[in-house]
Design goal:
- It is built from seven helices and 13 strands.
- The protein is of the alpha/beta class.
- The protein has one domain: Purple Acid Phosphatase, chain A, domain 2, CATH 3.60.21.10.
- Strands 3-2-1-12-13 form a five-stranded mixed beta sheet, covered by helices on one side. The protein has a five-stranded mixed beta sheet with strand order 4-5-9-11-10, with no helix packed on it. Strands 7-6-8 form a three-stranded antiparallel beta sheet.
- The protein starts with a strand and ends in an 11-residue tail after the last strand.
- The relative contact order is 0.18.
Length: 218
């Protein structure tokens, strides 16, 4: 039997919900776990999420909050919340986070995983870091926007050919477009944590234990 792949949206430190999702999905040690970025911040146990990911051998892409935490590691100015998160990380946690790529390709599935988005019409190797980490919308002039109210969802404009799985856009929730699936369903805001089995695209969800953070505006 070929190896199965399970891709999970933004966890944001919700370790218990992630454990519940993996149990509900009946993930085995032979399956491939992939996280769509933002493992850390806002939720109750960021270190626990990173530890679980590395101990399970999970692949993951870098999210914007993961990147902000790494900036603390480099000694750059940071908010108090990220300084507190940094203190909880172990050496092995840092090594895992520092190794996260901006995108993952799965040629056998014809799938790419990114955290935020891709600019339509731009080759993967030419995509800009800020778009991979922060893109949400495409405005009427075809320009990128980080805002939910900045235009159409970028994924609705993505024409393939490869399918893209992504997170980052909790306000829009689950997105299913012809060539893209958005998996950030706002677990940290009290909604659900979502994963999808590939290649069958079967969704698995668990409810949040509570709202750990008040949702930001657009």
């Amino acid at each position: 039997m070929s190896r199965r792949t399970f891709v999970v949206g933004d966890v944001h430190g919700c370790r218990e919900e992630l454990e519940a999702l993996l149990e509900k999905a009946e993930l085995t040690r032979g399956d491939q776990l992939v996280l769509a970025g933002d493992l850390v911040a806002r939720g109750p146990d960021s270190q626990g999420v990173v530890q679980l990911a590395r101990e399970r051998g999970a692949l993951a892409v870098l999210g914007n909050h993961d990147a902000r935490l790494l900036e603390v590691r480099l000694g750059r100015p940071a908010k108090e919340k990220h300084l507190a998160l940094a203190k909880a990380m172990t050496r092995r946690d840092w090594e895992y986070l520092e190794g996260l790529p901006l995108h993952l390709e799965f040629p056998e599935l014809d799938v790419v995983v990114v955290h935020a988005g891709l600019m339509p019409g731009v080759p993967l190797e030419a995509q800009r870091r800020r778009h991979l980490l922060n893109l949400r919308s495409i405005d009427p002039n075809g320009e990128p926007s980080t805002r939910v109210d900045g235009g159409a969802p970028w994924a609705s404009c993505w024409k393939g050919p490869r399918k893209v799985l992504f997170g980052h856009d909790a306000l829009r929730g689950l997105q299913r477009h012809p060539h893209a699936i958005g998996l950030d369903t706002g677990c940290v805001y009290g909604h659900q944590l979502t994963g999808v089995w590939l290649p069958e695209e079967a969704l698995v969800q668990v409810p949040a234990l509570k709202a750990w953070k008040v949702a930001d505006g657009p």
